[in-house]
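2024-03-11 09:14:02 DEBUG pipeline.ingest accepted 1 chain
2024-03-11 09:14:02 DEBUG pipeline.ingest length=562
2024-03-11 09:14:03 DEBUG pipeline.predict start
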Amino acid sequence: YQRRVREKKAINSTCFTHMFSLRLSTSSRSSLISTRLYARQKSASAFFHNVTTRAGCGLIGPVRFVSPKLVLPQQTLRRFSLSDFKKDDDANLRVNHDFEDAKKESESNEPPVDAEQHTILGGNLEMREAVETSDVFILVGLIKAAIFVGLGSLVGWLLWKGLLKNSDSFIYWYLIPLLQLLPPEDAHVLGIKALALISPVSRDFVDPHSLQTELWGMKFSNPIGLAAGFDKHGEAIDALFGIGFGYKSSLNSNTKLNFCSFVECGTITPKPQPGNARPRVFRLREDKAVINRYGFNSDGAERVKERLEERVQAKKQDPRAALNLRNPVQKVLGLNVGKNKETEDAVSDYLIGVEKFGPLADYLVVNISSPNTPNLRALQKRESLKTLLQEVIQKRNAVCPLPVKDEGKKKKFVPLLVKIAPDLSDEEIRDIAEVCKEVKVDGIIVSNTTIARPPELRSVHKNETGGLSGKPLFEKSNMVLREVYKLTEGKIPIIGVGGVSSGTDALEKIKSGASLVQLYTAFSYGGPGLVTAIKRDLAELLQREGYNNIQDAIGVNVRMAQ
């Protein structure tokens, strides 16, 4: 005991300046025991934080285990349990068990020193033990850093192997299930950002001649495209072109450039608007469907136009751009325009969309069929539709004519399409068909989402407000498709949308009158590999049924019924 007192006196001045009063809480279990220990912890943790950051652990999120402030392990915290202390009248914490042990040891030798000396002495010994324990922190931190460096490297390798090397199975079996753990809208946004960053390219299927078709003076290597609504703001256009929407053909590399891909972006409104309140997207997994009530959320025409112009400028460096200055890499880009929620004069908004995007689009779509914008579907009424289309076509003719090499030929313009709803009466369908023939639109998209709810829906989200898309929409949209094809006598090209998830579905759309087919909901569930699977199945079905080309199958079911 006397030796310990002398030792205490020798280091008392140094020890006292480095000590803090130890205060513990049974809820937080945290402590500050000395500036010396804190400095060692902070230095070690900062070192490991830098190591893990530079090693690429950011690939899998922030490393929470190696933080700027290390926490003592439980066995060390137990040394400083609240039962070891007693609060005196001066609100100071005292170490009781060391004082009692020292008192017993000193009874036969010298009178014990005062309690204050024991408090300092006991704290000093505990501080030494804790400082020694900090060595364990360094070892634990090193192990954690090694684990996270290894995991980060593994995830990076998988991303490189799976996305940059185009493993559709990797995306389907790993990335999509991970995305579907997130809320639907967050997964949607993250998927677009990932595509824009990585830009995977599909290389495992070459489109056969039987899938090639020609429409509006453009050649498509296959009829499968992506519907509007997936890339609303034009953020991942080239990535979407690269995952199989018609980019490859069976021709040689020189003539391949005359064939086109098929992606539609939007809907784009003149002014930025947030859309409806969240949550506004719901997965119906059991029904292979989605209900959304986005409400034309858009970055606005100016911002989207900037992105498209930046893309064109970047692609002009490509020598293939000489083939077509409007579309440097020969991929068909459709732009879908709509109106702002608060706009009273709907026609003016569509004219703005045509003026801004006509020179940048390979075809334009007038969207008058979303169920999530108030009074929008009223534009499908005969007189309203006729007035709208006449003014839009006039604006289109003024601002975006296509270049014509032969001056003697008739002037051409960017194709203009109108997108209609599936929830139409027979009379409304007839009126739309007659107006489209009268004003000479270049195409019709059938159809948008439905507000109907089939009784066979099983999901708990089936009664959510919004437009239903996916498999339950297939038959309903096909009924409208066949009727429109019959009423227009097959003279106006139709793009079939709604519930397509296989080659069989795509062929059924084509037989019902569609010249081209678009995907959306099935693509969000199946990923990029679904595009290749549909094209492969469609080619096999055409061969099995004796069709040399998809054009031979367009409208077959309608003609047979007549």
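2024-03-11 09:14:41 DEBUG pipeline.report The chain is about 45% helix and 10% strand.
2024-03-11 09:14:41 DEBUG pipeline.predict end
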